[in-house]
Structures are given as structure tokens and as C-alpha cells.
């Protein structure tokens, strides 16, 4: 009797075939990217609304793995207005981090590629599409216009260099070409003071292991803010921290945002943190946006069953319930996504239409949009 | 001599009498870790990880233990189970039996009764053992079920914890975080424990998975009358699952009481600050947040007097010299803070302060 193959099993032959095909696809993208002297006109674009600092437009980021193509981000569109905070929520693996890495163009290449869509970055007098911009241009954009606060402060710092050197490096590479060493050091110490490190000169000389988790996170923030970026991506900046330290860091981020008038894209799975920080909220599920709106829209009138489930599964201080709601089932396999609504198999509010194609985005109000058939029906009836 | 002071272990406590309503009685439990230094690796000081923790735990209830990282929550949990060597002082009575007095053989007999669910489901499962073996190893070792019923027993345990029978032959890497946590829970529950220490069982998980695991723990508690010590830094989870809550700071309990009391009326300034830092999922909630300055001091060299005085908003003169007494302020609500001293304690504290001041002057 032949042994029953488990679901998702790939023979070596099949895997080799996929990997060969992938290489063809990714090589084409890489070739495009590695061209020298790309004319500016190729990546020059115009913002749909000049009040936005970043516009994600129908972004598709795929990973071409040996087991198949993973559609990590599959048609994501949202805007980050200037001076506002946009929160991105979702479970792990839903594409939150990949969306932000696409903006930074720090994807794991050559497997990870932006295959479709635009990310428009507002540079004040002009706008660039970062997905098409060549490396030397991106090098100028990163740090100066967009910068990122990475997830784990423990691993984001290099253990063999002193804190001062690591921040100096950022300033040397990006901001001050004519600056001398003393200026750079002064700027680093100013940054360390700005993020609330009392003993800035002392910390300048320290190694990362000598600092506590909260202090390391401050250093990572200082590094991200070194060149006064217009857009800050904060990828779960407080997940590894205690509530008391988390409160300090959130306060700090809010103050700094106001001081340098930049936008923050705040990625987290903690709804409490989102409610506190964000002006706009984007809820992602399995690589797509299921709901977006202002913080009030999302928290007071959640529409998508996934958002409702997410809210109900988090215990809230001061609200006594016997049993927490838990969303049944699990996220579908990213290699083999269904062609109907991705959430249908876990959804308890299914309607007949849900068997059809993936639902379109429906506007509930000017700011509030949701992708669910329960609302498109209602709209049609009206 | 300052260095000498560090080496003295103060270890006086009044032994408690066993009260059958409590499954676990912890009295002035201390666990210090020596700091070795110098050429011959002499002990030059102690990290006071747990420095006099007192609480009683009723059968079939859940106690939450909260605090910042590094405050000794996990060490307390492990010291209760006698998992980190000998204690430094105090008592741990499990069903009236002093845990640290047992011989190795007796300890082995007691082990199935008290179990632990470890913090990180990604590093606490052996990658080389199939899941059935992970769960069943201890059951076989302790001879809890006859060999012919073994397989059925494991199936039943797995079923209880929401695992399928065919998962038995798989290896841990084939599972997601939530499933792994279920395996950890199944491993602890396979031995029919009475008392389980849950050391941050949901911190590493997503919100929706968290809810599943919390519901599972609660269901199992109802079914088997389990007693939990639930260690976590997520206060909203602790409020949801616990009947009583202990708040720890730098090796000490600073407040202990019923969950409803503590969340409605936090007494200790640290508890207040901790609770005010919880983010509320409501964008318009106006919060009066007390942001604590700085970070937790080193447990090797804790501040004199009240350990919290360096970060406390309501710090008084007295706090810098006298250690606050642990006493019952309302029924069942304990707190260690000078703000709530009665006359007697106040007088005592003032005496200590005067003595400490006099000493300080003479030394300078």
C-alpha cells in the first residue's frame, strides 16, 4: 500500500520544477532592478492627494519559495496622511511587516518581489514610486525620508559595536556629508537625550548588552529618528516590553512625532496600543485589508466579522465576561489560498454570497471601508 | 563594611500553621542567587531574586502574579516547585507539607501533583521527540497508568487539550505556536496535577490564539478542580482569569488581594502606576497615566528602605529609610506601603528611620 501523502506534500521533482520556474521570474525582476543609470522619469510619479506622505496603491508582494508562491501582500491600498498615525493590525503572518518592508524595499530578495502596484512616497516637491526606484536612490530615501523602528530591540542592535558608533554610522551615511566627527558625536548625544536617556554621554560609550530592554528600544528609536525622517515605520516597537516601559515609549513616540511633524505607520497586534496611538486603523487578514477607517470607526463600529472577533477575543480591564470569544479555525495556507473570501471558513456570520469571488471593498462612510458581502448586499438594496 | 552587609542573610520568620483550605502556603519565601567574584570564586553578594514573598492559595482558584520583567515572578514560581535548587529562607507548604524538607524519593512522588507550563512553547519542547512521547514520558516514568491503557490515556489527555489523536506521531516543529502551547498544557495535565504554575503561557501568542488558550485553561480548571498560579505581565489577561492577584516589585510582593478589590482600589503606588499603563482599546478614553521614570533597580543592590521609593510619586522621607511592613489593610487585601501605616507601624518605622539616620551620620 502506498503511504498516504499528507496535505501539502511536495515530491523532490515537483519542488525542483517550482524552484526552476521561480528563478526565471525572480531573475527577470532582479535584472530590471540592477540596471545602471535609470532615468528619473521611470520612478517619478504624482501623489493622488498631496496631503498624504505615503500612498500604497494595490500593492502585491509575493515570495517565490520552493514550496510555491506565497502571496504575502495581495492588493493592499491605503494612505498615510502627513502628521498622522496609521495603525496596522492583524495576526502574525498576515502581511503587516511585509507591507512595511515593501515601503523600505528591504524585502528578502530575490525571493521576495513587489510584482504589482505602486508605493508613492511624497518628497515635498516631487513623489517617487519606491517599488521602481533603483538602489542608489533608495539609499538616499531610507533614513532621510523613511525610517524604521525594528521589532526586537534585543536583535536590532549590533552587539560588538558601541551605541555611539552605531548611531554615528547612520548620520554619516545619510544626513551630513560635510559634517565633521565632533558634529556627528554632538548630534548623536542630542538624539540620545531627545529619546529620554538621562546619561547620554555614558550610554554613548556602552555596548547594547549593558542596557535594559526599554533603553535599547530608545536607542533603536534614536537611530530611526537620526535624520528627521518624514515617515517612521514602527514595527511592533513595544511588544517585547513591559507595560510600564511601553507607556514610556508610546509617550515618547507621540511627543517626537509632534516635534518633527512626521507620519507614523504603527504596526502591532495589540488593539489597546492601536487605540491609543492611531488616527487611522487598517485591519489586515491573510495579506489583504479587510477593513480600514478612522480609529473611531474601527473601535466603535467594527464591521468586518474578523475585526469584531479580534475585539471580542481580547480581555478588557474592568469588563467582566465569563468566556472569551475565540475565532474558530486558523488562517488558510498562504500557498494555497481559497478563491472565495479568505475569512469565510472561520466566519460565523456567513451569508450565501460568501461562496462567490473575494468581496470588493465597500464604503460604509467617507472614511470607513470594509470588504465583506454582508455590507455590499445592504448597499445594493439601498 | 558595606561588602560584608551584602553577605548577611536576614532570615527570621514566624512559621505558619497549616490551614486545610489552602493548597499552597508560601511564607516569607526567599531565593538569593550568589554572585561569585575574585580569584577563588568567593561569594561577593547576592541577587535577591525573591525576597520574602508571602501568600496563601485556596484550592481550585487562580492567583495571578504580575510585575515588570526582572521582578522575580518566574523565580517565585520555580522556587515554589523546588526547581531552582535550595531556597534561601522561608516556607513553602504544599498540602501542609514543607516542600523543601522532602527527600529526593518523596519529592519524586510529589512531582506529579505540582506541574509547570513553561514560558516559551518554542523552546520548551524537545525537537527530537514525537508529541505523544513528550506528553507520555512523565506518565510512564511515574507509572500512573497500566501499560495496556497507556495509549488510550494519552489520547484522552490530548483530546481534552484540543489536540487530535493523529498529532501523536508528529514532531513539535510541525505545529503552530498555539498548538505547541496546547502540547505544553497537555504535558503538564497528563500527570493529574492539583497545582499548576502557568509561567506566561500566552505572552508569545497572537490575540485570537490567546483567547483559545485562556478558555482552555479555564475549562480544564472547572473540570479537574485545578489550582493555578498564573504568572503574566499582561494585566488584562490576569484580570480575566484570576481570583486573586499579587503584584511584585523587585523580589517583594507589594500588594495582594482579590482581583476585584485590587482592580477597583489599587492601594500601592506601584500598582496604581502599573494599572494606569494598561492600554485601553477605546480611542477616546482619556487616561490619567502615571508614567514611571527610569527602570527597575538592580536586585543585587536594591535601594534601602522601601524598594520602590526611587520611582515613587508619593515618596515620603520615611520611605527612604524604613522598610514598609506587610499588613492587611482591608479584609483579604494586603499591602506593603507607608501610606497605609497604622499608628503602631508608623511609630516603628519612625524609630527605624531615626536609627538609620543616626548610623548614616556616624559613618560619614
State the main characteristics.
heterodimer; A: 382 residues; alpha/beta; eight-stranded mixed sheet; five-stranded antiparallel sheet; 13 strands; B: 364 residues; four-stranded antiparallel sheet; 12 strands; 32% helix
Task: Please give a structural write-up.
The complex is a heterodimer of chains A (382) and B (364). By secondary structure, chain A is α/β, with parallel strands linked by helices. Chain A contains 13 helices and 13 strands. In chain A, the strands form two sheets. In chain A, strands 7-8-9-4-10-11-13-12 form an eight-stranded mixed β-sheet, with helices on both faces. A five-stranded antiparallel β-sheet of chain A has the order 1-6-5-2-3. In chain A, strand 5 and strand 6 (127-129) form a beta hairpin. In chain A, helix 5 (163-174) packs across helix 6 (181-194). Chain A is globular, with a radius of gyration of 22 Å. Chain B has helices spanning 2-7, 73-80, 104-110, 131-141, 150-160, 177-189, 207-224, 235-241, 259-264, 269-276, 343-363, and strands at residues 22-37, 42-58, 62-66, 89-94, 97-98, 114-117, 195-199, 227-231, 244-249, 252-258, 327-330, 333-335. In chain B, strand 4 (89-94) and strand 5 form a beta hairpin. The radius of gyration of chain B is 22 Å and the shape is globular. In chain B, 43% of the residues are buried. The interface between A and B is large, with 44 and 40 residues.
